[in-house]
Amino acid sequence: MVASACSSFYAHKRTPFFSLQGRRVNPSMQKRIVVLGATGSIGTSTLDVIARHPERYRVAALTAHVSRDKLLAQCLQHHPDTAVIAHEHDARWLSAALQDAGCETQVLYGEQALCDVASAADVDVVVAAIMGGAGLAPTLAAVRAGHQILLANKESLVMAGPLFTDAARQSGARVLPVDSEHNAIFQCLPAPSSSTALHTDLAQAGVIRLLLTASGGPFRGWSRDQLHDVTPEQACAHPNWSMGRKISVDSATMMNKGLEIIEACWLFDLTPDDIHVVVHPQSIVHSMVAYRDGSVLAQLGNPDMRTPIAHALAWPERIDSGVAPLDVFSMAQFEFRPPDEEAFPCLGLARRAMNAGGTAPVVLNAANEVAVDAFLNGQIRFTAIPKLIDEVMAALPVVAADTLETIFAQDALARDYAAKIVARWCDE
Ligand SMILES: NC(=O)C1=CN([C@@H]2O[C@H](COP(=O)(O)OP(=O)(O)OC[C@H]3O[C@@H](n4cnc5c(N)ncnc54)[C@H](OP(=O)(O)O)[C@@H]3O)[C@@H](O)[C@H]2O)C=CC1
Ligand SMILES: CC(=O)[C@@H](O)[C@H](O)COP(=O)(O)O
Ligand SMILES: [Mn+2]
């Protein structure tokens, strides 16, 4: 059955006990997980961790944008109650393929269906792993429903930090960072005092600054001139992490670190001045917290997102993630150096947006998404990405970002303005 949205399909039959690989599983002990962006890099890693712990977790819903073959394979392995895909024709194809295979997963399509599965009443955990601003509405729906959020989609906090954190405080939703640096920082901080797991008043806890590590990306050490002719393939070849193409380009421009500064401000209630970026090419130290007494706490591990995902899934417990423990004897050396902000101006643009407040980060994010897309499509040069963002930020006024409607309106304005600049540059 295919539907654009449905509210009753969660009336779901469960047997009191069933056997899984010889183990007795009690469904009432399983947390019900929704993976938004299941077919992506984070989604795939999440399902890998979940599959290791069938007695703890059960997949309630999986979503994809267009990757229907991959979503089909995931449904056949995890048997979610619901699968969501963007377009009706893909939903019909998926539904027929599932029926042929005897799988009872119901298929929905469209943006409303994403919000519906994210906010469904019998869900425990929502993994927010859609790429970009498209993740905001379903992630916020999950926050408003009071579910535990495993947050990978940093763009939703960048676009709607105040709305997002206020909604979590109102609903009591627990927000656990999956982004590797923020997860590392979370692990190095005292246990949060509120149910949301958002931190407040870190100064009171003796924290003087956060040290946000950056790999420097594939072009670390390159001058602005050397960056002029780089290709999308070069930009997507991250030295340490295997990730989706958009975040890979963000790492290459260091806009990823800029977005992460903003993300950290909202998660940990800080200002950009409290967050120092440290280039650490090995990506083994995932970030650090400096305390007043001279202590610097760090979290280390192999660069594999299954570690922060497993940490956030099981918190405050610890579970197997499939990642081998770090072999410290194999570490030749750790390097730490300041970023080159002249070659990588996106860091400064992100700080400027956060300091300006209101809709400035919305515009930053929207212009960045258009710029990255245009670069990946061969329309603009790598070095034009920060120029485009700067031009859009300079042109659009900053207004209060107090409703989702305003945020989406400014997002649309900025995307439209950025696309027009791309078209103009292509004609020149
Ligand atoms: N990859 C990583 O290691 C890390 C990622 N993150 C963040 O996690 C998020 C996901 O990143 P990553 O997994 O790398 O990205 P991917 O590009 O690998 O996957 C993105 C996922 O989102 C879906 N998607 C894309 N566009 C839309 C849309 N318009 N509507 C609905 N679904 C959509 C994709 O579906 P489909 O496959 O059908 O296109 C896919 O499932 C990003 O916000 C990123 O910044 C944070 C830290 C680390
Ligand atoms: C894995 C992860 O969290 C990414 O955000 C990663 O940090 C990107 O690497 P950069 O440090 O190069 O941005
Ligand atoms: Mn990160």
Account of the protein in words:
The protein has 428 residues and is α/β, with parallel strands linked by helices. Among the domains are: 2-6 and 24-173, Rossmann fold, CATH 3.40.50; 357-428, Rna Polymerase Sigma Factor, Chain: A. The chain is built from 15 helices and 14 strands. It has helices spanning 41-51, 68-78, 88-100, 111-119, 136-144, 154-171, 180-188, 232-236, 245-253, 255-268, 306-314, 346-356, 360-376, 384-395, 404-427, and strands spanning 2-3, 18-20, 23-25, 31-36, 57-63, 82-85, 106-109, 125-128, 148-151, 175-177, 207-214, 275-279, 285-291, 296-300. Helix 5 (136-144) links the parallel strand 8 (125-128) and strand 9 (148-151). It starts with a strand and ends with a helix. The structure holds NADPH dihydro-nicotinamide-adenine-dinucleotide phosphate, 1-deoxy-D-xylulose-5-phosphate and manganese (II) ion (MN).
Which kinds of small molecule does this entry bind, naming each only once? NADPH dihydro-nicotinamide-adenine-dinucleotide phosphate, 1-deoxy-D-xylulose-5-phosphate, manganese (II) ion
Query: Structural class of the secondary elements?
Result: alpha/beta
Q: Unreliable runs, pLDDT <50, ≥5 residues?
A: 5-16
Strand content is 15-25%
| Shape, principal axes of CA atoms | globular
**Helix content percent band:** 40-55%
The description of the largest β-sheet is: 8 strands, parallel
Say what the CATH topology of the domain at 2-6 and 24-173 is.
Rossmann fold
Mean pLDDT: 94
Number of strands: 14
Architecture (CATH level 2) name of the domain at 2-6 and 24-173 = 3-Layer(aba) Sandwich
